Amino acid sequence: xxxxxxxxxxxxxxxxxxxxxxxxxxxxxxxxxxxxxxxxxxxxxxxxxxxxxxxxxxxxxxxxxxxxxxxxxxxxxxxxxxxxxxxxxxxxxxxxxxxxxxxxxxxxxxxxxxxxxxxxxxxxxxxxxxxxxxxxxxxxxxxxxxxxxxxxxxxxxxxxxxxxxxxxxxxxxxxxxxxxxxxxxxxxxxxxxxxxxxxxxxxxxxxxxxxxxxxxxxxxxxxxxxxxxxxxxxxxxxxxxxxxxxxxxxxxxxxxxxxxxxxxxxxxxxxxxxxxxxxxxxxxxxxxxxxxxxxxxxxxxxxxxxxxxxxxxxxxxxxxxxxxxxxxxxxxxxxxxxxxxxxxxxxxxxxxxxxxxxxxxxxxxxxxxxxxxxxxxxxxxxxxxxxxxxxxxxxxxxxxxxxxxxxxxxxxxxxxxxxxxxxxxxxxxxxxxxxxxxxxxxxxxxxxxxxxxxxxxxxxxxxxxxxxxxxxxxxxxxxxxxxxxxxxxxxxxxxxxxxxxxxxxxxxxxxxxxxxxxxxxxxxxxxxxxxxxxxxxxxxxxx
Length: 543
Ligand SMILES: [Zn+2]
Fold this sequence. Notes:
Blueprint: H1 13-31, H2 39-59, H3 62-69, H4 71-83, H5 90-100, H6 107-137, H7 162-166, H8 175-181, H9 186-197, H10 200-203, H11 208-223, H12 232-247, H13 257-269, H14 279-284, H15 288-292, H16 298-310, H17 324-339, H18 346-360, H19 366-378, H20 386-410, H21 425-456, H22 460-463, H23 476-490, H24 504-514, H25 517-527
Bound molecules: zinc ion (ZN).
């Protein structure tokens, strides 16, 4: 194979990739012929491929690969240029810079992540074999098992209506209503529902009782801090978005059972026992958790530790029947996915994915895709219908303001967007959509198009999937609509016809008139309360 071609010396990654791509395509072509390549020959060829990749991995500095990829610097420049234009106020700019990019304490980790990115190139090339061989063997996987709803006698008390459950398959799913119909057990219900639908109970020998006890512990972990935003409703919402990507968009056709198990579980646990404050708050206040996790992805480490500690109870151990290899694999996937929900890795993830898309074509590492889908699901609120997005915004801003109150009390600088007296909600949301959410969904859409093209294009219509071929994705219209609404609110003329400026008093007016009188009324009410005595702050402000 590839006779006459000079083997790359491992010093130039582009040549290595081109060479590997050709080599692996030839192996795949041969596997598809009437006389496929023998196992011995295939082992020999793959051994050769691995040796070249290992050589390249140890010989070439990662930065060479990254700088030659080109796509990385483009994103940086694009975002940076727009972010530093006059149209973005300083507070929003600072919030985006401090929340979605790593600051100095994370530099060491960043360098590690870069190395991992390069390794992922190696894995991606190997992974493509797996994906392709799967497609050779399988027809379309069976879709969902028929609906089966859990019943909790004496607790949730009733089963969900068929109509409500059916909406689980729609992008317009309403977690607030779901909370009502599930008797205040949304995470428990959606967990049962999804594990049943994807047949995970049977495939991994999990009993209904074990799953229920596990879900209840996790749900209680979310309920305990009584955060307005980071609670069981948010976890339910993220689990739903992941389910949507898996089912309606068709990502499940690219994933094996363990990977589906891993991403659903990650969505369910990813913010458990959230403190309602940011990682930066923990670091700045030198909290116990910040000391425990050495300032690195403090909350994400805590969520993981909480969940895996629950799993140590025998009657809640949904991993009990996994083999040691399966346990090791799923733990790695879940840890990586939840750590990747640390918002400070946002721009880095975006750059890495963009580079993978432009460099590797359809050879994206599966775990990288899973991490990105979970992260996008985690920031998907602005891509939902306005009524839902408005409620989520109200909740997250209240959580931010509570943090600002605590920072004031502790004598710490108030974090961007956390000062309830000056923050402009429409501007913050517009900045979030334009610089964080929209670019992420664009890259995600591109990734899904590439990943799913060969898998779903023929069967998309048959299964009602959001296939490829130019169909508009469900999140495109709501994102555009929400962006337009916030933009309009940023420019709402005041009574005398002059556009709102960015002073504190005008922000309050803009917010109160256009954001939602009830919620903002509560925010105003809370403004003068003592933070220490403000239990009301932590009560969800929308019932
Ligand atoms: Zn989250």
